[in-house]
Every structure is written in C-alpha cells, then in structure tokens.
Amino acid sequence: MSHPLVSQLRFTRHEWQRALRDVEEADGRIRLEPMNSISWIVGHLAWQEQRYWLRFAQDVVLIPQLDDLVGYGRPASTPSLQDMRAAWREITTAADAYLDTVTGETLAGHFSWKGKPVRESVGTLMLRATYHYWFHTGEILAIRQLLGHRELPEFVGDIEAKGPYRPE
Predict the structure, then answer these.
(1) CATH class of the domain comprising 4-162
(2) Distance between CA 91 and CA 138 in Å, rounded?
(3) How many distinct helices (H) and strands (E) make up the chain?
C-alpha cells in the first residue's frame, strides 16, 4: 500500500483531472492574461512531477523540452493541450513506479542533485506538489468559467472512497 502522502497526491491528481474533463484543444490553448493557458498548466505540472520524482529521485528526464517550455519562471506559452496531456501521462506513469517505493523514511530524507542536497525534504516536495495541483485546479476552473464552460466540479470529489485519511 502506498504511503498516505502518496495516496493524497494521487487523489489530488484525480481531482485535477476532473477539472480538465472535456477541455478541448482550442480552449486549452487560450490565454486569459495574466493567467497562463490550461495547456501550459498541464505541461507545468508534468514538468514538476518530472523534476521531483524522475530527475531528483532517479536522474531520469523523459521530456527535457519541458524545462524551457513550461518550467518555473519561463515565459507564458500556449503549447498543444494534447501534447501536454501526453507528456503528463508519460511522466506520471513513470513517476508512479518510484512513488510506490516511498516510505516515511524516504520522505524525511533529501534528494541530492548535482552533488548537493536539495533544500527541501522529499516529504516537503510531496506536499508542495500536492498543493501545487490544488492551486492550478482552481485556476483551471476559473479559466473554464471565464470561457463559459458549464457543469464544472464545484467541490472536492469522492474523498471518502479515493483519498480518505489513514495513518501511516
């Protein structure tokens, strides 16, 4: 069974995907300034997952172009939503193999990158990734409202079945 923080990250991913349900390519590429496009957000979260669970944890980079396209601090862009969804799926599938191995001891430790310890613990990175998804879930839903989309999720989904509290 996955560590409870990993389970929460996975539940959060599921909720984020609910916010993305039925977004078409054209709408995904619209940028309502100062917000980023939905497609950028999808790529950006793929970039973060790749950075933490592949690059830092395993020294693996599946899609290096994400660094320049949607990495932190990069200029706004409107990449293909289809391409960003595919990148996200590829990266999170690869990340899940690592996340299945995470323990409380892992979370208390630090990754090393380029010979130096990463400032934040693995557990703090896990929390940062989880909260980052929630931040962008709200942003996606705001963009969708402005685009006139209807019947959007209004509240956290089936947490009791998919992400209940459980002690370590």
Answers:
(1) mainly alpha
(2) 22
(3) 9, 2
